């Protein structure tokens, strides 16, 4: 820091906030730390009693907070994202289009372990809409040693820390099992729920086939939808371990590779995920999806809609944050449910 006359401060950077106090009216900063003094600022600074100012002296090998915040924003990436103008050493990053927000959590952790810098983000695998804020960057002091930023660059690597996977337009088939529905003893209430959730995305529902608790009928219904051009098939009913619940075995009989039967999510433990021909999701949805406001389906569907293919480890990671608390007022996804996904 260097103390200079206020009249000579044009073009220099303030090292601290300048506060204006008017008794009974206001007590607030008129200029923030990091502000670059202009000619128009001089009368205001003098009016608050600042005839001298502490300003930042540029030093070789050190960066001002504004420049450093831009460096950190660059580590995050900008494909499908926009940056706010740097202000008071901070840059906000927002979504330019709808999609699934992805964070390389491990690399972000390593970057945030570097002293005096920070990048805060939304949780990974969050649905975002155009204009949503994704992240914010800044350094802690007014100036920072460039060596720390170089360390952050090395830890971040060449790939951006953040990305947005755009949602795809898809076709879906719904296979509803259960003798009680098939024979008309009760009205199907599962199909409307699935259609409503799919309507949040660009999905054409090819139709709904209601079949008996019969492995061959279920298999034929799944395969027929795929032959009609379905990009994904959702099977409802028959997902428990009861002897007459044959949906899991029917899915297997199509030749689809089962990633998991069971998930560490409540509601949603009896969930099945498989892929037909390696890339068409065939999903078994447990009964809870029909009556719970949010469930495993809400965590998985956005990833299916971006072709974000999941393996067993992806499903296992959902256990941390996989407990829905059934809040009286549901705020999902702005809550802990699915927070580790």
What does this structure look like?
This protein has 341 residues and is an alpha+beta fold. It has three domains: 2-56, Molybdopterin biosynthesis moea protein, domain 2, CATH 3.90.105; 62-165, Alpha-Beta Complex (Aldehyde Oxidoreductase, domain 3); 170-317, 3-Layer(aba) Sandwich (Molybdenum Cofactor Biosythetic Enzyme, Chain A), CATH 3.40.980. It has eleven helices and 20 strands. It has helices spanning 41-47, 65-76, 105-112, 146-156, 179-182, 190-198, 215-227, 247-253, 288-291, 296-304, 312-317, and strands at 2-5, 13-14, 18-22, 26-31, 52-56, 62-64, 81-83, 90-95, 99-103, 117-121, 126-128, 133-139, 143-145, 162-165, 170-177, 203-211, 232-236, 257-261, 272-276, 280-285. The protein has a six-stranded mixed beta sheet, with helices on both faces. A hairpin with a 6-residue loop joins β7 and β8 (90-95). α2 (65-76) runs parallel beside α4 and α3 runs antiparallel to α4 (146-156). The longest helix is centred in the middle third of the chain and has 13 residues, at 215-227. The protein is elongated. It starts with a strand and ends in a 24-residue tail after the last helix.
Number of strands: 20
- The CATH class of the largest domain, by name, is Alpha Beta
Largest sheet: 6 strands, mixed
Percentage of residues in DSSP E strands: 25-35%
Cα-to-Cα separation, first versus last residue: 45 Å
Round the mean pLDDT to the nearest integer and report it.
Answer: 92
Helix percentage range: 25-40%
CATH superfamily of the largest domain: MoaB/Mog-like domain
Mass-distribution shape: elongated
The helix/strand class is alpha+beta
Give Rg in angstroms: 28 Å
Order of strands side by side in the largest beta sheet?
Answer: 16-15-17-20-19-18
The CATH topology of the largest domain turns out to be Molybdenum Cofactor Biosythetic Enzyme, Chain A
- What is the number of domains? 3
What's the oligomerization state?
single chain
Please, how many helices? 11
Q: What are the low-pLDDT stretches, counting only 5+ consecutive residues below 50?
A: none
EC number: 2.10.1.1
Family: Belongs to the MoeA family.
Keywords: Magnesium, Metal-binding, Molybdenum, Molybdenum cofactor biosynthesis, Transferase
Domain MoaB/Mog: 173-306
